[in-house]
Amino acid sequence: MNAKIDIFYNELKEAVESDSLTLPSLPEVALRIRDAVEDESSTTEQIANALSKDGALSARMIKVVNSPLYRSRTPIEDLHSAVTRLGLTLVRDLVMNLAMKQMFQATSDVLDKKFRKAWSTSVDVAAICQMMSVTMDDISKERALLAGLIHNIGSLPILMMAVNDDDLFNDATALHSIIIQLQGPVGELILKNWHFSDNLVEVVKHCHNFDYTDNDDANLVDLVQVALLQGGFVSEDYVPDDWSLIPAFSKMGMDSEVNVVHIEGNRECIEDAKASLNF
């Protein structure tokens, strides 16, 4: 299997270097919103107008702002009011979160099942991240959600390339092994191509490296790692037997033997977050 991984990796690397590997592209409206928010001269009206160019995204934004996570006593019915209530930075992060679902839409029936599974995992991990982020003063729940959504983005081009090798594509164990080993560097390429922030690039690079630590402060990598582990999304073959040795738990101030996912109030928060992503 190692030889096959090496061959596939070399083919993948060559495809990247020759620009023949299809990397997913962010929707144009998401790029426009991000650029507009980062332009300090942009107004609420300009952001709302940019959002209105995408009817589906606009409708989902209205649904999200009226969801249990964000709603107030007065329902929001238009984009301008939604942007005003949420603020520009929050709108930017929400647009990115909502746009992620489009990245996981397969172009063929063969890929559809695996893409759906990848999206389902990313939503579950993202929801757990958002729930746990309430204890982290310097990480917003929207940024935590985005970290969970993009953690496995590198798997998509790998699946698109592997579909051409029937033996590999239908060998779940071998394919999973390749994805675990290669989705980090591929994900890094994608996020750098999208001009995402360094702390999100670190997530895709290190989320399956359970020896990872950079300093004493918990960050997005630690958050995603704990979400992956407590959500049951990591095979025991890839993680230490003693979770207390994983730096992410101590950095998060969490007991590795207590699964916060199963606590009743937390479960409700997780389901609300998942609902906001599956409109």
The helix fraction, in percent, is 55-70%
For this structure, what is the CATH homologous superfamily?
Hypothetical protein af1432
Taking the sheet with the most strands, its summary is: none
Category by helix and strand content: mainly alpha
Count of alpha/pi helices: 15
Any idea what the shape is?
globular
Here the CATH topology equals Hypothetical protein af1432
CATH class: Mainly Alpha
How many distinct domains? Answer: 1
CATH-derived architecture: Orthogonal Bundle
Please report the total strand number as a whole number.
0
Mean pLDDT: 89
Radius of gyration from the CA trace? 19 Å
Strand % is under 5%
Q: End-to-end distance, in Å?
A: 40 Å
Low-confidence parts, pLDDT < 50 over ≥5 residues? none
Elements, N to C (H/E):
HHHHHHHHHHHHHHH
